[in-house]
Specification:
Blueprint: E1 11-14, E2 26-28, H1 29-46, H2 48-58, H3 62-74, H4 83-86, H5 90-96, H6 111-131, H7 135-153, H8 172-189, H9 205-221
Antiparallel strand pairs: 1-2
């Protein structure tokens, strides 16, 4: 991969080994993430009612609603950065990182829950540090935006549910790759943190249900 970021060393979709000769053996995780985000962008641009409803519930202008939803959809599969997930295909894990010993093999937490867990324990803090966020924004992101993250990571029909420690599932290099992707994707998709309704009383549990449904649909179409 040369000088490409390490997040290009993770598979997101993989063909069964016996079927790999009929087509590509894998689809990179970050490419799948962008596929799903692109589906969401088109859906929201074309469906006025859905866009308007989300904008009302999220308390955002419609243009920012699209931008925020695209950003969120792009990070729906953060849990697949986990070594425990990547080792579901030992051949691909070895192909992408042949010099890195496997530390964690026991895949006992679903990747949707792993993604929310990574956000809650690692990525949220780093993002807020990057933003140099004040107290109000920190509290809003921690309480309300985290509901959005729960919604999009829980894109397989049930809310994320995991109390395990990140280090049991993600190698340090996995955490760093996910963080680098989050930063680069945030820079590319450019959600406006200044647009967040920080000073308004808002129950972000309400839009989270619609966000979860959007994530399920976009993940299906984008796969």
């Amino acid at each position: 991969m040369g000088d490409w970021p390490d997040y290009f060393r993770y598979w997101g979709k993989a063909a069964r080994p016996e079927a790999a000769t009929a087509g590509p053996a894998y689809h990179l995780l970050v490419y799948h993430a962008l596929d799903v985000a692109a589906v969401g962008q088109v859906l929201l641009q074309k469906h006025h009612f859905l866009r308007q409803r989300l904008a009302v519930l999220m308390q955002l202008p419609e243009a920012e609603t699209i931008r925020w939803c695209v950003f969120l959809l792009g990070i729906h599969d953060l849990g697949k950065f986990a070594e425990t997930f990547q080792y579901l295909r030992p051949d691909l894990r070895e192909y992408f990182r042949p010099q890195q010993p496997v530390q964690h093999k026991n895949h006992d937490v679903r990747h949707d829950s792993l993604g929310e867990m990574l956000w809650r324990q690692v990525l949220r803090k780093q993002l807020l540090q990057d933003l140099n966020a004040g107290t109000a924004l920190k509290e809003w992101v921690s309480e309300h935006m985290s509901r959005w993250i729960q919604a999009v990571t829980g894109h397989h029909g049930q809310p994320p549910n995991a109390n395990a420690q990140v280090r049991r599932h993600f190698a340090p290099t996995d955490q760093e790759a996910a963080l680098t992707f989050l930063r680069d994707w945030q820079s590319l998709s450019a959600p406006d943190f200044a647009s967040l309704p920080v000073r308004q009383a808002a129950d972000q549990a309400r839009p989270s249900w619609l966000l979860a449904g959007l994530a399920v649909l976009c993940d299906w179409l984008g796969s």
